[in-house]
Amino acid sequence: MVRAAFCRIRDFNSFTLLESVMEMRRLGKTGLSVAPIVIGGNVFGWTADEKTSFAILDAFFDAGLNTIDTADVYSSWVPGNKGGDSEEIIGRWLSQAKVSRDKALIVTKVGSDMGQGKTLKETYILKAVEDSLRRLQTDYIDVYLSHWPDEDTPHEETLGAYAKLKQQGKIRAIGCSNYDAKLLQASFDAAEKAGLPRYDVLQPEYNLYERSSFEGPLADLCVKEDIGVITYFSLAAGFLTGKYRSKSDTQGRAREGRVSKYLDDKGLRILAALDKVSAETGAKPAEISLAWLLRKKGVTAPIASATSLSQLESLAKSATLALSDDAMALLDQAGA
Q: Can you list the domains of the chain with their CATH numbers?
């Protein structure tokens, strides 16, 4: 259940923000609690410059939300960037933010290609964590995720590296991203057999359009094992905001290649369903899409990015939007 304990209106640089204290959600067995929406740091240093990123983070925490998601590889795909750009921006924000470090949960990832290929080798993780800590200007990472599976490295080696980092106090909890049910179960089995910490958080791709990889065996396993689930691409690279209705809408945009694939019959059915629920509730498509995720089995909190304060306001509203059973059924059917 998600609700606002109290609300008030604040003015923030000509931006009116509904500030609310959110009911936190338990993140699996990590001992950590997250607000219903996680801010995505993939846009920091890409479509949001440092000044904009700082303003978004300030407003995000002012809204009663508390968790930032990033990765060491963000945003290396931008010409001139080297990777670690998002972490560096977050680190500079943390160093001057009014929010105390213990009130900000930081999720970052390791294992993506930073010039060495994708790897979860122990020696690489032990070095990479130091780089992330330096960029983030912090002594510890709240949740450290294996970004991609590595079939060349045994689970025991990767989990052993995380065990060392937990003992050293450099990370608090561990998880993985892009693991299917079979691979996640194999990691649990390896952890139990070797007496190592297991993954307690999963970050899968999941949204109204992309459902098959999470719904079913993977969601069932997460519920059974009490895994905290924070979804990425929760708005399908911006498609579920409703602003992309044809290929011409995507031309020249930073996300052009990612969004175009959703412009098929299924995608248009979903947009039509979102428009119908929007007309009934007064909520925006993005808010409805995130509220839909918050009611899905196994989901703790979706990740969503913002590149403006108006977008951030919409994300905050989605955390307290209650969708009816009829609206959920309509959306389920459109994206089936």
A: 25-238+287-321 (3.20.20.100)
